[in-house]
Amino acid sequence: MLQSIQWKENCLLLLNQTLLPNKVEYIECRDYQVVAEAIRRLEVRGAPAIGVAAAFGIVLGAKEFSNSQYFWTSLLKVAEELGQTRPTAVNLFWAIERMMSVASRYDKNSDIADVILALEHEAIAIAAEDLDMNSKIAHFGAELFNIPVSVLTHCNAGALATAGLGTALGVVRQAFSEGNITRVFADETRPLLQGARLTAWELMQDNIPVTIITDNMTGWVMKKNMVQAVIVGADRITLNGDVANKIGTYGVAVLAKEHNIPFYVAAPVSTFDFTMESGLNIPIEERDATEVTHFAGIRTAPEGIEVFNPAFDVTPSSLITAIITEYGVLKGPYNEAIAELQQKIKGV
Ligand code: MRU
Asked: Is the CB of 161 inside a 6 Å radius of any atom of ligand 1?
């Protein structure tokens, strides 16, 4: 199984996703700054994956400062720096908070070795749980497919974007194994080509038939009845069911509605922001203009041109047919379904 994040005692190995599909190369992270930089540069990317990477980043940071008299303030600084890497995917903050709440069980009189061990256990648990959640999502999601269909996906919500298996692509893998997915259409996903570079590569590794299209071909592919469902991942889901995901997702959802095609979102509960009412409040990352003005290092737009480069957009819940979680499939009205989900999580 493809594992883009591996923990080897004092070293975090991250599959460098900026080099795919041309090179399969792991970055060896021995300090938290390298992890932070890898998240910033999208060498590790995808909401659950950056949460897992940040959790191990905290372990590395704790190890770095284990002999310092300023261990506790340094640990806070590590968490803060990791939290400043990317603003949209809530999994990052969820994982950091979870790690820091483990640290908060100890105090200044505790043995630092015990704190580090507890942090390491927690990071390993976060990664293992992510894989387990994805397997549950895959099974719940596959139940939505009971006749062979072609599906369309946007960006990469696969093993590369998680601790393994993937969210949207986990569902695809499961439904494909049951004979209910015949082909995946992958939007190339401008500007950084997560669809063309990553989803295509990942599915080809598993011999799942995949066709890439440029983003502006989606409407026509739908019009020609070449896809019967859309399935994507998420970076943040708010209490009303709005979904932030890779830029372009919103357009795909509008097109799906126009063509009467179900639009599914697959995400673990770590992607839900239970403190935010609506998608209007989600901070949307804006990235460097060169991602738009250049292609493979070559300038493709005039020098000095104004650029708007949001990395994510928000799909309103009204366009979403169902949200697949590890607790089951949610359908609208999402305010109610998500409130019930919260109760389930609490075990009420
Ligand atoms: O900028 P990226 O590549 O990190 O964006 C990733 C996405 O938008 C994914 O679709 C999302 O994180 C879900 S991954 C399971």
From this structure: yes
CATH superfamily of this structure's domain 5-134? translation initiation factor eif-2b, domain 1 (1.20.120.420)
pLDDT value for 48? 98
Report the atom number in ligand 1 closest to the C-alpha of 47: 12
Q: At residue 202, what is the residue type?
A: E
pLDDT of residue 1: 83
CA distance 80 to 69: 19
Q: Which of 40, 152, 155 to mutate to test the pocket of ligand 1 (most atoms within 8 A of CB)?
A: 155
Q: Is 45 in the pocket of ligand 1 (CB under 6 A)?
A: yes
Residue range 227-239, pLDDT digits in tens: 999 999 999 999 9
Domain residue limits, the chain: 5-134, 135-346
Query: Which residue among 42, 45, 152, 288 is best mutated to probe the pocket of ligand 1, counting the most ligand atoms within 8 A of its Cβ?
Result: 45
Strand partners, 232: 265
Catalytic residues: 235
With a 6 A CB cut-off, is 245 part of the ligand 1 pocket? yes
Residues 109-164: pLDDT tens digits? 999 999 999 999 999 999 999 999 999 999 999 999 999 999 999 999 999 999 99
Whether 164 is in the pocket of ligand 1, judged by its Cβ within 6 Å, is no
| The ligand 1 atom nearest the CA atom of 312 | 8
CA distance 82 to 92: 8
pLDDT tens-digit readout, 288-329: 999 999 998 999 999 999 999 999 999 999 999 999 999 999
Q: Note whether 75 and 107 are within 8 A (CB).
A: no
Which CATH number is 135-346's, of 3.40.1390.10, 3.40.50.10470, 3.40.50.11890, 3.30.1660.10? 3.40.50.10470
pTM (two decimals) = 0.97
- Give the Å distances, CA to CA, from 325 to 109, 139, 342: 41, 10, 12
The pLDDT of residue 296 is 87
